[in-house]
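Sequence in, structure out.
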Amino acid sequence: MNAVPPPTASSPTPAPPRAVLADDERLMREQLRARLAEVWPALQIVGEARNGLEAVEMVAALRPEIVFLDIRMPGLTGVEAARRIAQLPPREGSGEDDELLPEIVFITAYDQYAVEAFEQGVADYVLKPAERERLALTVQRIQQRLAARASGSEGGEGPPGPHLQQLLHQLAARLHPGQPPAYLQWIQATVGPAIQMVPVDEVLFFISDEKYTRVQTAQVEALIRKPIKELVDELDPRLFWQIHRSTLVAVKAIAGVTRDFRGRQIVSVKGHPEKLEVSRSYTGLFKGM
């Protein structure tokens, strides 16, 4: 595992974009690195990982803007690694809402994984062996998204967070075609002194703190010990959207979205007075607001 430390905050000029490559085949990493040097000379490859777990650890340490993940890797698949990367906590001392998720590019030898969601800009993909023309298209898309981030523009494709979880569920289903997803139907939660079974379809939102996650329905407020990063994988992404590292909201419970005095998006919930803040990585869910 090779890694280069991130640039210091005192850099006199804006740092060039940085990327981590993850593929269990050394020759494939070398080929992709060489192709990227041709089509994106300014890109810095700051780390190369040999498996999914190394990739997650490297991204957590280096916080690159782009991550190239082979879909099939030992230990953790690229899909599983992407799930963990999407739920990484913010760096110590950084503002949680100011730290965006990295752009994800999947590497695959199997074009059946190139599902429609890739073409919709949620994430991108590169087929093995990486061809210059196709990689140039991927680079162009990433550059556009990074430029939109830097300018704070919402007119582009925006951060990758909004529908990334839906894409990851689709890819996981394709990796394991005989195993349909078994989403949670009930939540066993603490309500006062009692344990209660809460139907998932009654939940308005989940909000977590350091120790517990609050489960909120129209009538009941309950607590569970399961963190948001686990719930994201266990709930149907078509029914629950992650709008913050600490918040999942039922799509049917969204009454509307407004902006506060800071320009941040705020979700109003049907049947409940609480307002839920949308972090920058998930603002693309509500384009045009």
